[in-house]
Specification:
The protein is of the alpha/beta class. 54% of the residues lie in helices and 13% in strands. Helix 5 crosses helix 8, helix 7 runs antiparallel to helix 8 and helix 13 packs antiparallel against helix 27. The structure holds adenosine-5'-triphosphate (ATP) and magnesium ion (MG). Homodimer.
């Protein structure tokens, strides 16, 4: 507390009504939240279990929980809720499950599940092209985030394309219901709808929650904002912090206007602005301020730093994307060697996930430890999806999506005709596929197929009984053995190594569940839904990453974080700003993304670009990003500009590496 500046202290101590802390990057907004939680517990006599803090990512939530734990010490922080909006929503849904008409063991669908479902509906019911599923799922998500219900979407639809979307939404929602399933957006939407319909339930939650704190407020969507307003009610125990210049999730329904809306909805709102930046050196900060001055703002703010001017910013022009990867990695090795420090002090940021591939190869080749956040998520891997589908089906026999995914994994000779006949029957009598197996008879389908379906169902029932009887994890392990899942993986993999990696992913998943159940004393069902929200796995991956790995992530994922040395690659037109945003004339959001990237850096910032880049098998010319031209030019040091021969650059990179290697012996 003594470290805080007077404004920060004011924000921490103000508890008489709702408070908005509005401030630029690195000014200590997140620090205010952490300190305030401790203050509320220690000085205001509010018990930790009456306080909830909402952050944007699991990683941020985890860090905050740790920091508060340290500040408070002992068991004083016990019962404190620090979570993402989705986790908070899940908590409410779990508690109010019956009221919401959900059966025990409900499933949570991710984006891929959603797309599979929509594809199915499009093809089977509308005879439409399944390729549109991705777009439609995105549209459905927008509707949900804007609190538009399926019937309303249908009523408002204009034109056949929009109508198809709205109809798909309607059917999608019905199918989710039938499957006893929710998607990610429902985790927020359902609680808000429930609270609207049942003031008594809302009152119970309001009485339980005495103080709510929200980080990264600029990226809340309409549903999330409503949830905040509902939970707070008249009590006014609310602190939100945000920076409209860092709003980078408009495409996911975020509404930076929510910052302004607060003032209207809470007339007594106190606003505190923070202006001192504690993160970055003067030149980095100046670059960020100058860049973002090109945007229009909701609120004016100016940031200054006492950390001295620091090094100039570097702009590295490379021959092509390979050269870019080579140079960045060579530089990091070189820099670390000369300055000491750790690989974890370096972050490489980029606009799109695909940009990480060459970097990964290069880092592997040079034996530099690295950690990739996001990317191909653990849950997108086939074997993980399979096992998750089994788990979902165990808990929720009505989860048809899960059923269809694994009916033939490993192969059970359940042919398409059998499954189709089953599906038709289930549709006709309005029940799930699993339920249909018990009701269908051989007049409706082939005898042998039916026998296999029954065998499958009986087997699953047996596993389910074993899970219910006690040791869920042991039952899951024996299920995997029983169906020879590992042999199946081996037969499906191109090499032994691939097979082994996949098996270890499955082990990792089951071990993770076990740990979660042990630590938090929850049942298999809850452990699984937490797992779906990534909680545990991200944690384990982060831990495995440790401080000794170069951090690779998208600009979006870097929000809220800081690193001594930052490289932003692909500072080119059509990459940053992204082509689609140029086409849509939505440059401001891209500029904010660049602003987020620049303000992650504490001591040094290097921006890289390629002169040529391969795209769809063709080499195309690239232009430096317009954002480079918007930075204070006197503070930039160019390297490898046009007049340098590209070959010389590549050579220089290689020489640096060779030199370093000989140095290292
Ligand atoms: P962002 O907008 O990127 O989320 P932020 O406003 O949340 O940034 P923090 O991450 O809370 O900023 O703080 C940035 C850095 O400044 C952290 O390293 C933090 O420890 C440090 N810091 C914050 N307040 C102070 C202070 N009063 N004295 C010294 N250091 C501080
Ligand atoms: Mg922050």
């Amino acid at each position: 507390m003594s470290q805080l500046n007077p404004r920060q202290r004011e924000a921490v101590r103000y508890i008489d009504g709702p408070l908005l802390v509005l401030a630029g990057a690195g000014s200590g907004k997140t620090s205010v939240i952490t300190q305030k939680i401790a203050y509320l517990v220690e000085n205001c006599g509010i018990r930790a279990n009456r306080i909830a803090a909402v952050t944007f990512t699991n990683k941020a939530a985890r860090e905050m929980r740790e920091r508060v734990g340290k500040l408070l010490g002992g068991g004083a922080s016990e019962g404190l809720t620090v979570s993402t909006f989705h986790q908070l929503g899940l908590k409410i849904i779990r508690t109010e499950r019956r009221q919401l008409g959900l059966k025990n063991g409900f499933s949570i669908f991710d984006n891929q599940d959603g797309q599979a479902l929509v594809r199915d509906l499009l093809v089977s019911e509308h005879g439409a092209d399944g390729d549109q599923a991705g777009n439609i799922v995105q549209r459905i998500s927008q509707w949900k985030n804007d609190r538009v219900l399926p019937e309303q979407a249908v009523a408002a639809a204009q034109g056949p394309a929009e109508m198809l979307c709205a109809q798909a939404y309607l059917r999608y929602q019905r199918a989710l219901r039938a499957y006893n399933a929710l998607d990610f957006d429902d985790l927020i939407l359902l609680p808000t709808l429930l609270f609207e319909e049942h003031p008594d339930i809302l009152e119970r939650w309001q009485n339980q929650l005495h103080y709510l704190l929200v980080d990264e407020y600029q990226d809340t969507n309409a549903s999330q904002y409503l949830l905040v307003r509902q939970l707070i009610g008249m009590r006014g125990g609310l602190t939100v912090v945000g920076d409209d210049d860092q709003s980078i999730y408009a495409w996911r329904g975020a509404r930076p206007e929510n910052l302004g809306q607060l003032q209207e909805d809470f007339p007594g709102l106190r606003v505190v602005k923070l202006e001192q930046n504690y993160r970055s050196t003067g030149r980095i900060l100046n670059a960020a301020n100058t860049l973002i001055a090109n945007n229009s703002h909701l609120f004016d703010k100016s940031l200054w730093s006492e950390l001295g001017p620091g090094e100039p910013l570097r702009v590295l022009q490379c021959a092509d994307e390979q050269d870019e990867a080579t140079q960045v990695v060579a530089e990091i090795i070189d820099h670390k060697l000369r300055k000491g420090g750790r690989y974890g002090d370096y972050a490489i940021l980029y606009r799109g996930n695909h940009q990480s591939r060459l970097l990964e190869l290069e880092l592997q080749q040079q034996q530099v430890p690295y950690h990739l956040s996001g990317g191909t998520s653990f849950f997108a891997r086939n074997e993980v999806k399979d096992v998750m589908a089994y788990l979902r089906l165990l808990l929720n026999p009505d989860d048809d999506n899960a059923f269809l995914r694994i009916a033939n994994v490993p192969r059970r000779k359940l042919g398409a005709t059998t499954l189709e006949a089953l599906g038709q029957f289930a549709n006709g009598v309005h029940c799930s596929l699993t339920a249909a197996i018990g009701r269908v008879d051989s007049s409706q389908m082939n005898e042998a197929g039916l026998a296999r379906l029954r065998e499958f169902r009986n087997w699953l029932d047996g596993v389910r009984r074993a899970v219910d009887a006690g040791d869920g994890i042991a039952a899951v392990r024996s299920m995997l053995r029983d169906m020879n899942y590992f042999e199946w993986l081996r037969s499906q993999s191109s090499s032994r190594e691939v097979a082994e990696r996949r098996m270890s992913n499955v082990d990792f998943l089951v071990d993770g569940l076990q740990r979660l159940m042990g630590e938090d004393e929850v049942g298999l069902d809850e452990a699984i839904s937490r797992m779906v929200l990534r909680d545990l796995l991200e944690q384990q991956e982060e831990e495995a990453a440790g401080p000794e790995s170069v951090q690779l992530m998208t600009l979006h994922a870097s929000k809220g974080l800081e690193f001594p040395h930052v490289y932003i690659i692909g500072m080119e037109e059509k990459l940053l700003p992204h082509r689609s945003s140029i086409d849509e004339g939505n440059i401001d959001e891209e500029r904010r993304l660049a602003y987020v990237g620049i303000t992650r850096a504490r001591q040094s910032l290097t921006m890289c670009m390629a002169r040529k880049r391969r795209q769809f098998g063709e080499s195309i010319d690239c232009e430096p990003s317009r954002f480079i031209a918007e930075l204070p030019q006197d503070d930039l040091r160019w390297q490898g500009r046009e007049d340098d021969a590209p070959e010389a650059n590549v050579k220089r990179g290689q020489e640096t590496l060779a030199g370093l290697k000989s140095l290292l012996g």
